[in-house]
Amino acid sequence: VVDAHQHTGVLKGGDTTGGPV
Protein backbone atom coordinates (compact mmCIF):
# COMPACT_ATOMS: atom_id res chain seq x y z
CA VAL A 1 0.00 0.00 0.00
CA VAL A 2 1.34 3.41 -0.94
CA ASP A 3 1.62 5.83 1.96
CA ALA A 4 -0.95 8.62 1.87
CA HIS A 5 1.87 11.18 1.84
CA GLN A 6 3.62 9.63 -1.14
CA HIS A 7 0.95 10.13 -3.79
CA THR A 8 1.12 12.84 -6.45
CA GLY A 9 0.49 16.50 -5.72
CA VAL A 10 -3.17 15.96 -6.51
CA LEU A 11 -5.19 14.60 -3.59
CA LYS A 12 -6.43 11.07 -4.22
CA GLY A 13 -8.86 8.81 -2.38
CA GLY A 14 -8.41 9.21 1.37
CA ASP A 15 -5.17 11.23 1.11
CA THR A 16 -4.98 14.09 3.54
CA THR A 17 -1.93 15.62 1.85
CA GLY A 18 -0.86 15.67 -1.78
CA GLY A 19 2.81 15.15 -1.06
CA PRO A 20 5.50 15.57 -3.73
CA VAL A 21 4.42 15.35 -7.34
In short:
This is Phage baseplate assembly protein V. With 21 residues, the protein is mostly loops.
Tell me about the largest β-sheet: none
How much strand content do the residues show? under 5%
Give the fraction of residues assigned to helices.
under 10%
Low-confidence stretches: none
The total count of helices amounts to 0
Secondary structural class: little secondary structure
Distance between the termini: 18 Å
What's the gyration radius in Å? 7 Å
Calculate the mean pLDDT score and round it: 58
Basic shape: globular
Strand tally:
0
InterPro entries: GpV-like_apex
Biased composition (Gly residues): 11-21
Pfam families: Apex
Protein name: Phage baseplate assembly protein V
What keyword list fits this structure?
21 residues; GpV-like_apex; little secondary structure; Phage baseplate assembly protein V
Task: Describe it.
It holds the Pfam family Apex. This is Phage baseplate assembly protein V. InterPro entries: GpV-like_apex (IPR044033). About 0% of the residues lie in helices and about 0% in strands. With about 20 residues, it is low in regular secondary structure. It is globular, with a radius of gyration of 7 Å. The model has no long low-confidence stretch (mean pLDDT about 60).
